[in-house]
Design a protein that fits this description.
about 220 residues, SH3 type barrels, 2 domains, Cyclin A, domain 1, 5 strands, single chain
Length: about 220
């Protein structure tokens, strides 16, 4: 999706403020926003790429005008409404009205540390050899998908060098189509590709600047060395 969320390389949004000794959260509500998102993610009713897609598909003004964690809250509300866990009236009134949905997996407080440490591994076995190897030159395809993708717009069509092969991992572009559990999807070889700044931004790029992007195999094609 070529949405407002894909802001890398864009201009006109003003400087990025850098706070000295910036706290993890700027208010208790931000801490709660992260906590609720993690807790509901553990319910098993959606996967990480569906959560990312929910944030990316918010109206553009919602995405750019509010604080970072406001985006998380609005995306969580969207997911909860879509799955019938809350109603619009409950959201408006800020309290439960209907009978709570049963059978939803609950992340208990005592299990949080273990759940976060475990994460949600995306590596999968593969019977196919990787197409690319470290040191090989590749070009990011000029893709314009309608849905979620992890290929940044600013690297599409540009040439970089593979520096790492991470094995076989679930492809987010397919994972996001799994609307109901069990969640899995097509897996592909995953690489880290380094792009020179001048390749991306032209001669005005900062000297020595490089950008590293994790790219799935279907995002790439071989390029001349």
């Amino acid at each position: 999706m070529n949405g407002v969320h894909d802001m890398g390389g864009l201009q006109g949004y003003g400087p990025v403020p850098i706070e000295a000794n910036e706290p993890l959260f700027h208010g208790e509500w931000e801490r709660r926003a992260l906590g609720m998102t993690v807790a509901m993610g553990a319910s098993g009713l959606w996967n990480i790429d569906l959560a990312r897609s929910a944030r990316e598909s918010l109206p553009p003004l919602d995405y750019v005008q509010g604080p970072y964690y406001a985006i998380w809250i609005k995306a969580l509300q969207k997911l909860l409404l879509e799955r019938g866990l809350i109603t619009t009236d409950e959201l408006a009134q800020g309290k439960p009205i209907t009978t709570p949905v049963t059978g939803v997996r609950v992340l208990q407080a005592a299990a949080v540390d273990a759940a976060l440490a475990k994460g949600s591994p995306t590596d999968r076995p593969s019977t196919q050899a990787p197409r690319f190897a470290p040191g090989q030159r590749v070009r990011a395809l000029n893709l314009n998908p309608q849905g979620h993708t992890r290929l940044p717009r600013y690297v599409r069509g540009h040439v970089g060098t593979v520096v790492l092969h991470h094995g076989n991992h679930v492809l987010p572009d397919q994972h996001v189509n799994k609307m109901l559990p069990p969640f899995d999807g097509t897996a592909e070889h995953l690489y880290t590709v380094v792009f020179d700044g001048t390749e991306l931004w032209g001669p005005q790029a900062e000297a020595g600047h490089q950008v590293s992007v994790d790219a799935w195999e279907s995002y790439l094609e071989a390029a001349p060395n």
